[in-house]
C-alpha cells in the first residue's frame, strides 16, 4: 500500500482573506513535491490474506471432492443392496408361486422314477380321489 504525502515549502503558500480556514493555494505548483512511501507491513498483511484465501479455496475444493466421492460410494452400496433385495424377493416370490409347486414335486418324483411319464395336475387330483 502506498501512502501519499505532499511536501510543501512555506514560501510558496498563498493565503488570501476570502479563503476558508485551513485552505491554502500555491504560487507555483512546480515547486511542490509529492513523496510516496511504501507501507511494507500493510503489503505483508494483504499478501498473507491472499495466500490464506487460496489455501481455504483449495481446502474447500478438497472437502467437496471427498464429499462427492463418499456420496457416490453410498449410492453404489445402496444400489447393490437394492439389487440383492430385489433378487431375494424374486426368489421368495418364485418359491411361493403355485406354478412351480407341482413341477418341483414332479422333478423330485423324476429323480426317483426315471422311466415313468409325467402326470398332469388333473391326473394327480383324480388319483388322489
Automatic annotation (TrEMBL):
This is Uncharacterized protein. The keyword Coiled coil applies. Keywords: Coiled coil. Residues 31-94 form a coiled coil. The lineage of its organism: Eukaryota, Fungi, Dikarya, Basidiomycota, Agaricomycotina. Residues 105-114 have a biased composition (Acidic residues). Residues 101-129 are annotated as: Disordered. It comes from the Eukaryota.
